[in-house]
């Protein structure tokens, strides 16, 4: 049975959603209470300052009840639409299961059966993708309604800027610019790390702030916003634009100090590093580079490639491979594949991630990799920190409702595949996982039945090592039982440049165009 035929069958077997009538009755009851409150407000006739305060409180509660009642009455419609999608899945799955190959001569039977299987798989894939997209859109509509219905306070009882949120978030929104400026960068960074554990609450808090409060925070608390999971990506980028300007100024001061010292090889190297970083930071200040996260000293950077003003249809997490360091981002090579993927795809957003130290990384120079450290990429502990952070990255982005229904793809080049598959164990979920000459999957990893897995590779040094069983305990993408689909190796310019072929796959070189075209079809279906 084909991959999508199986997925569609699983979807068809899902139970129908219930409780629609209960929500209808609850909505009607809440509406009746709200109207009773309105009548009481009119009958009592409040007067005086205390009376006006009581009237204001009662009115806010009445509005809150109406908000919840309205939400409750919308839920049954959304549930019915979701059930319609499940019914559609059942009909298509039943039709596919009932099909048989037409009677033909014995020698043609196998070909006819294979043709039918291909047709079924294509139809199942189209139906599955359409149904899942619709269910995600319905989930995005249900999410805020569920938040209102399960809240412990009335959503209409607070003013903008005083929404339900952790106390520190609520208090932060009320601080004046002077009070915000008094907080140290380290305090803001620690606060962001603490609050990022609940990105859904962060998103809800940000959505209720006034424009003045948002502007104040962007001006005076950029180190906080630039690291806070749950914020819209465009807000993170705006905050890190300010943070890049601050880092740029600090680097310029350090460069002035170093240039005044006697010349030495060490100083010359440090100056070259800072100058290269500053060129990158200047691009972030100018807006041509979009930083979702940037912390040079912790070797953490997440760069966004794509138009954040567009509604996201495809969210891609691109994970580079062994030896990737901060200078690779500064010089621009590691983002090449991301830039290529978003061309002519207005709804595609790529998060190029290096959230922690990578195996073989050396940020002390601008030269090539130290190949003697390549075995670090084969260590099962090399993904411990970075995989957790990748899962947190996805969780924070998914907290934004407009990202809920976008197709989620993770791409791992070389060791990057180990990081991607380890992140699944840390709670990440992708619709597609794509290996670009991927290294290995963690011990105990198993493919998610709701995710498709595909490997693209040239004959290269890593493939040779995998054939000898020397990589990842032989838990590699091109093993027949790996869960990855793969075709024969792509033809490389040279069959003997095994290192060059491994790097070619992550480039926009003309020799890589055929693979890139197939990669785009795999991701975007065109």
Write the layout of secondary structure elements.
Blueprint: H1 3-12, H2 20-44, H3 48-98, H4 106-149, H5 167-174, H6 177-181, H7 185-195, H8 199-208, H9 211-220, H10 222-225, H11 233-259, H12 265-286, E1 290-295, E2 300-305, E3 314-319, H13 326-331, H14 336-342, E4 348-355, H15 384-398, E5 407-413, H16 415-425, E6 432-436, E7 452-456, H17 461-467, E8 485-486, H18 498-504, H19 513-524
Parallel strand pairs: 3-4, 3-5, 5-6, 6-7, 7-8
Antiparallel strand pairs: 1-2, 2-4
Keywords:
single chain, 526 residues, alpha/beta, Rossmann fold, 3 domains, 8-stranded mixed sheet, 19 helices
| Radius of gyration, whole Å | 27 Å
Q: Look at the structure and give the CATH class of the largest domain.
A: Alpha Beta
Write the element-wise H/E pattern from the N-terminal end onward: HHHHHHHHHHHHEEEHHEHEHEEHEHH
Number of domains: 3
Mean pLDDT: 84
What is the percentage of strand-forming residues? 5-15%
Fraction in helix: 55-70%
CATH homolog superfamily of the largest domain: Alpha/Beta hydrolase fold, catalytic domain
The largest sheet is:
8 strands, mixed
Give the overall form: flat
Number of strands: 8
The CATH topology of the largest domain is: Rossmann fold
Structure in a nutshell:
The protein has helices at residues 3-12, 20-44, 48-98, 106-149, 167-174, 177-181, 185-195, 199-208, 211-220, 222-225, 233-259, 265-286, 326-331, 336-342, 384-398, 415-425, 461-467, 498-504, 513-524; strands at residues 290-295, 300-305, 314-319, 348-355, 407-413, 432-436, 452-456, 485-486. The chain is α/β, with parallel strands linked by helices and 526 residues long. Helix 16 links the parallel strand 5 (407-413) and strand 6 (432-436).
